[in-house]
Amino acid sequence: MAFGQPRIEYKTNAQMRIMRDAGLVLNRALDAAVAAAAPGVTTKQLDDVFAAVLNEAGAKSNFLGYHGFPATICTSVNEEVVHGIPGGKVLKDGDIISIDGGAIVDGWHSDSARTVIVGQADPEDQRLSDVTQAAMWRGIAALATGSHVGDIGAAIDDYVSSVPGKPLGILEDYVGHGIGSEMHMAPDVLNYRTSHHGPKIKPGLCLAIEPMLVCGSIDTAVLEDDWTVVTTDGKRSCQWEHSVAVHEKGIWVLSAPDGGAEHLVPLGVVPVPIP
Predict the structure, then answer these.
(1) Does residue 117 sit within a domain?
(2) Along the 275 residues of the chain, how does pLDDT read in single tens digits?
(3) Domain of residue 133, residue span
(4) What are residue 128's phi and psi, to 5 degrees?
(5) Structural domain includes residue 4
(6) Contact residues for 72 (Cβ-Cβ < 8 A; gap 6+)
(7) Residue 3 falls within a domain, yes or no?
């Protein structure tokens, strides 16, 4: 008996509008956490700031309790790639931290991540963050102009490979994903070019696009807490992520206040609000 790929959940416009509500709550919570990231602040304090915004909005965290995860955000510092657990770690001047969070409104999910450099930025760390963020937007633009989900990873890979200077690595073990009535759903969204085109892009598809780049080797390991992923060579890493919806008229970045217009219009893509 043959088994197919996991079924993709295609959303109605009404469902995507609720996901937009979740994305806006998430955007405000990330704004607050990013603003609070400063030397002397613990990662647990960032988690508390983020959680307070969700609570005030009446939204739920989709991270807290997910397979036992104990916090509302992931705080991944320096060589930590993803899934860092907030705690007593005190941020220092020059740290690079990826803050990844999500929110649920009326059963519909959002997921987004940003990278912050605490205090004085090392130029190489700033370049790492800038390239990762720009690669994310190239991937989102490819969602608007491409025909298959694999076009997203191809666009990200092509951009990262074209950046002058020291090459940066694209993690392959951790990728983006579908999102909707659950946080992690089909399809996988690779951040690199492969021969596999992936499913067709069509209305109702919602994806979390999240490239993760490193300054050194793409090899990673999981720490004893069974969550925190680190680079094996100790080099620094970075993550940027947005949740994006495809509808009949175009795309709309659910977790960006302007739907992504600021970054997409210069790339030739005009995002369109969900009808």
Answers:
(1) yes
(2) 344 568 999 999 999 999 999 999 999 999 999 999 999 999 999 999 999 999 999 999 999 999 999 999 999 999 999 999 999 999 999 999 999 999 999 999 999 999 999 999 999 999 999 999 999 999 999 999 999 999 999 999 999 999 999 999 999 999 999 999 999 999 999 999 999 899 999 999 999 999 999 999 999 999 999 999 999 999 999 999 999 999 999 999 999 999 999 999 999 999 999 99
(3) 13-267
(4) -55, -45
(5) no
(6) 47, 50, 51, 54, 61, 63, 64, 101
(7) no
- Look at the alpha carbons of 239, 240, 243, 245 in this order and tell me if their dihedral is positive or negative: negative
How many separate helices (H) and strands (E) can be counted in the chain? Answer: 5, 14
CB half-sphere exposure, 48, CA atoms < 13 A: 8
Backbone angles phi, psi at 109, to 5 degrees: -105, 155
* Count of the separate structural domains present in the chain: 1
Q: Residue 136 belongs to a domain with what CATH number?
A: 3.90.230.10
- Residue 36: count other Cβ atoms within 10 Å of its Cβ: 17
Residue 273 lies in a domain: no
Q: Which residue has the tokens 């780049």?
A: 213
> Considering the entire predicted model, what is its pTM?
0.96
